[in-house]
Amino acid sequence: MDLLRDNFLKLSPEVQEAVLNSAGMPTPEGETRNLDDPPNGNKYVIALVSVSLSLTFTLGLLRMWVRTIQVKKWNIEDYLGFAAYGPYAGSVWVMVSCMHTGGFLVHQWNVRIGDLLDILYILIILRICYVLVMILAKSAIILEWTRIFVPRGTRNKFFWFSRAMLVFNIVAYVVLIIFSLISCVPIQKRWKPWAEGKCFWSAKSLDVTTAWVNLFIDVFILVLPQRIIWTLQLNTGRKIGISVIFSVGLIAVACAAGRTWSNMTLDYAGDTSYDASINTIWGWSEMTCVLIVFYAPGAAKAFTKQGVFHGMLSSLRSWRRLDGSKQSNYQSADSKGYPPVDTSSSQNLTATEMEVMRSHGHHRDAEVGFGDVGTGHGITRITKLETRVRSASNTSTDPVIEHQHPWMGDRR
What we know:
Residues 62-295 form the Rhodopsin domain. Pfam families: Fung_rhodopsin. The chain has helices at residues 2-6, 13-20, 42-70, 76-83, 85-100, 113-149, 157-182, 203-223, 226-231, 236-246, 249-265, 272-299, 308-336, 344-360, 398-404; strands at 184-185, 198-199, 364-370, 381-387. It is mainly α and 412 residues long.
């Protein structure tokens, strides 16, 4: 690289081309150089990108359906979250370009210097896409969690912590992206060492700083709702269930930690192509997880009682249950000489009354009739049911959670 920085422009075009076609570093003892078809990990990255795109696209589409068709309202976090998919899709180009320029998990002695310089340019594009995804998606997550956990018109600690983190998230990433663009003047000097200009700080110092800031924000977002979840007056099982939903971000935190470790151990003067591939995989995985954290809770509402999928599944189950019940009743009636007993209506009535009693928090007596009065051998049976439902506290009932949670209820 010293040759490229100091004397490259003084070389003849033929020598310049020969230098760019040479290996990026000397071949270690015991290794064999392969510049034409080196072993790589492209197949693993193709699988990762395919699964990631499928998950994020499906969940994003479901959330868009819910907000547009079911809720019929978009909040500011929806616009931010869906806008984040733009730079995320742009990062797909980065992943594909890396596969065709050197490849993933390829040691630098198997990479030409010209390809290595192209990789440096591609990674700058990835850094910009990464920062844009994070500033948009994390802002959307913070805003949505404020909407979920802070009652309207309330200005509690959660609200102010969320607002402070929102400002920090925006300012930090804006500063980082500016520093990335002006780290070298002109910026081309970052991937063309021979260009006239100056670099003010190393790429490693910038990457390590970005990684630590990003890890801090991820941990804060993960921890932020846990206190409220565990102070709800719910049974332990429900608390764990809700906590797990909001802890999907654990995977994002793990990816952020892996990326931080990768940046700190990356040797920019050593086997950079191999180490940078690992760092790129961590960064892509983290972007995917952050988008899933935002899309998944909103998409889940498509499967609630008001959701289109729940209605389809319920209709299918009801049809199968009704069909099986009728066959069973007619067989029983034929064998015993009794008229058929229609239990489906009574079961539906009981379920409805139970839901009403549950939502209103009172007890009542319900008289449910099973069967019809027939002639001859008709049977009439009156069953008296008494159901008592304990009214919950103002801060712990399921309806309250459904009211405050946009994918468990109808809060808009």
